[in-house]
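Entry type: protein chain
Record version: 2
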Amino acid sequence: MGSDVHTEKYEEQQDQITIRDRIVALWDAKGLTAKELEKASGLDRDKWYALRNGRRRANEEDIMALVKVFPEHALWLVSGETAPEAGQTSPEA
């Protein structure tokens, strides 16, 4: 029973983490500057800054750009889940 409570709390925390949060975490984990992210993704750095600073929400264009640059993090980016056996990891892995 104690483990069920722990699992529920973990799932609640994961539900509160947004795709925007994961984009920022991925950006930080890779240690990229906004200019480097712009070059790698093809999206203007001002868009990335606005997303980081909460001035806009993540959209399909952001997600697709990052999935092309970091395909190994695609599942984690959109769901927060990993599947190491399929090559899908979090940036912390």
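Comment: The radius of gyration is 14 Å.
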